[in-house]
């Protein structure tokens, strides 16, 4: 764990290693193992002024807390190359459509995560990963479900999809 500052040297996290904490790393970070910003338990921010590379073998573990409106964060004024798996756990609260959780801030972002391990959401919602290039994991309605579809529609006379289709079978 980095809870203070390291020197200006670069850091490579091996496949079985973990880099976490709430401090500042002085040099570039290359993660082959696990990146886990924040303290061992709780929310926090890990910072570097240099580039960060998340290799294909890496797992980036972030905690969010919907109730407290906080998230673990990685901050770099340099470049961030995404890769590997993004794993998120929600400590408290229930995410709703329109929520956005800032996981990282970077001077520039390239690449993408190859896999996701994300918390379950309420019916009709899905995680919006298309905003990760801006560092934000969002929540949106899933139009492939009836609940998501009905939430994005206008019904006559102020009726809701539920009142027009009380059994939820998609037929009014």
Can you describe this structure?
The protein is mostly beta strands. The chain has helices at 146-151, 161-164; strands at 11-13, 18-21, 24-25, 29-31, 34-37, 45-48, 52-54, 59-65, 70-71, 73-82, 85-90, 100-102, 104-111, 115-117, 125-128, 136-141. It has two helices and 16 strands. A hairpin with a 4-residue loop joins strand 8 (59-65) and strand 9 (70-71). 6% of the residues lie in helices and 42% in strands. The strands form three sheets. Strands 1, 3, 4, 6, 7, 10 and 13 form a seven-stranded parallel β-sheet that branches. Strands 2, 5, 8, 9, 11 and 14 form a six-stranded mixed β-sheet that branches.
Summarize the structure.
The chain is mainly beta and 172 residues long. The chain has helices at 146-151, 161-164; strands spanning 11-13, 18-21, 24-25, 29-31, 34-37, 45-48, 52-54, 59-65, 70-71, 73-82, 85-90, 100-102, 104-111, 115-117, 125-128, 136-141.
């Amino acid at each position: 764990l980095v809870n203070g500052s390291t020197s200006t040297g670069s850091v490579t996290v091996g496949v079985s290693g973990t880099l976490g904490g709430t401090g500042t790393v002085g040099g570039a970070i290359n993660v082959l193992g696990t990146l886990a910003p924040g303290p061992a338990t709780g929310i926090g921010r890990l910072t570097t002024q240099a580039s960060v590379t998340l290799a294909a073998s890496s797992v980036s573990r972030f905690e969010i807390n919907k109730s407290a409106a906080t998230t673990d964060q990685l901050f770099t004024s340099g470049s961030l190359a995404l890769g590997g798996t993004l794993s998120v756990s929600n400590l408290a609260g229930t995410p709703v459509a329109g929520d956005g959780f800032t996981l990282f801030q970077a001077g520039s972002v390239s690449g993408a995560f190859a896999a996701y391990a994300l918390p379950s959401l309420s019916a009709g919602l899905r995680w919006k990963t298309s905003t990760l290039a801006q560092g934000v994991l969002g929540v949106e309605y899933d139009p492939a479900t009836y609940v998501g579809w009905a939430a994005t529609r206008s019904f006559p006379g102020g009726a809701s999809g539920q009142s027009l289709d009380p059994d939820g079978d998609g037929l009014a």
